[in-house]
Design goal:
single chain; 18 strands; 31% strand
Length: 383
């Protein structure tokens, strides 16, 4: 009898933990392949981007740019657009030039669910001398929390979907795990593209990564709705093969009676969120330096809901529009900050040299005669 009661109590505790928490894919790098490209005219280059996450920063450009130049002012979360930011002690011309992020294709024969897809591949060049160093792997822009879900118009402005419109084409096409919540409320980067809303307390974080027997440490960087960035230590990469590294919140309370209950007004408080800010790789001075190679598939979170979503008798937002005005102001601020930075990068790229060879000063006949003269002189020297 005592054994039965013990099993029942354990089951109730397990049920309580499951009832509290939601699981969501924060970001899945297999969704971020470059699937579209734009070709420039007059040698202005070609850009490739991920169509789902494309951002047009020509809205922040001045009137001096041509329409063709503005067509090239696009960026996205495509894997080849991500950046490696080294700390001061690790930064030099060689390491900055060789450290990069690329799409890494998983073989179709691989014994993993994401076989024949692209994941994030990272190369970081750490100092070879004894020095503590770290590097951040960050997206090309701060992931907007309020970008509406919709298509870009001819002016580069995203048009929100109409209320009640089908959002399936903007959501994740496949749900390998039905217990994973990949729904979103209408913003572009939800559903596995770097943003999860209605997040209360984080219970756990998971990273699917391939270890290459490096002794380096791995951190996940997350930013909340107060614009505070926090880092979570996932573990060391000293193993071989694919593995899910997990961080468990040591301060998570599973017993509801011992929790501090806080009650907030339902409206017009906006939903709290977390968004992906990047990874951080740390190298200890006592460990091997030089090249680091890593591969990452996704980041998942288990969390408590901040608010229970339910149907209301009165459509508060339709009546007052308070949240919409706040989110619109925040979205405009995010877009201007993002756009100014991207325009500066575009101008710097346009000024970069594209030549690798010098224009020859001699014509073909002159070079041929010079080569013959050089050959005759060499023959005379041998004699």
């Amino acid at each position: 009898m005592k054994k039965t009661l013990g099993l029942l109590a354990a089951g109730l505790l397990l049920f309580t933990g499951v009832a509290f928490a939601e699981e969501a894919v924060l970001i899945d790098f297999t969704y971020l392949s470059a699937d579209q490209s734009v070709e420039g005219e007059n040698g202005e280059g070609t850009i490739s981007y991920n169509s789902r996450t494309v951002m047009d920063f020509s809205v922040s450009a001045g009137a001096t740019f041509t329409e063709n130049q503005k067509d090239l002012m696009k960026t996205s979360l495509a894997l080849n657009d991500w950046e490696v930011v080294l700390n001061t002690s690790a930064r030099n011309v060689t390491s900055v030039g060789l450290s990069q992020v690329v799409p890494a294709h998983v073989r179709a024969e691989a014994d993993v669910p994401f076989a024949d897809k692209d994941v994030m591949g990272v190369r970081i060049v750490f100092p070879e001398w004894n020095s503590n160093a770290n590097a951040k792997i960050v997206p090309p822009f701060i992931i907007p929390a309020y970008e509406p879900c919709g298509e870009l118009d001819e002016n580069g402005v995203r048009q929100p979907l109409e209320k009640g419109a089908d959002k399936s084409e903007f959501n994740t096409a496949h749900k390998e795990n039905e217990n994973v919540n990949r729904d979103f409320d209408g913003t572009l980067f939800e559903g596995g593209y770097g943003l999860v809303k209605n997040v209360g307390t984080l219970k756990a974080i998971s990273v699917t990564t391939m270890g290459m027997n490096y002794p380096h440490g791995l951190y996940v960087l997350l930013t909340d709705n107060d614009n505070i960035e926090r880092r979570y230590f996932m573990g060391y990469l000293g193993f071989d093969g694919w593995r899910e590294l997990r961080w468990n919140n040591p301060q998570y309370i599973t017993e509801v009676r011992t929790r501090e209950i806080r009650v907030y007004p339902i409206y017009p408080r906006g939903l709290p969120f977390v968004k992906f800010s990047g990874f951080q790789i740390t190298r200890d001075a006592a460990h091997i330096g030089g090249d680091f190679i890593g591969y990452f598939k996704d980041v998942k979170i288990i969390y408590d809901k901040a608010l229970l979503t339910s149907d209301r008798d009165i459509a508060d937002e339709d009546l007052w529009g308070i949240i919409g005005k706040k989110e619109s102001a925040r979205q405009n601020a995010e877009m201007m900050k993002f756009g100014n930075k991207q325009v500066d990068r575009y101008l710097e790229k346009a000024k970069m040299s594209t030549e690798d060879e010098f224009t020859p000063s001699l014509n073909e006949n002159s070079r041929s005669n010079a080569q013959k003269t050089s050959g005759n002189a060499a023959s005379a020297g041998e004699k």
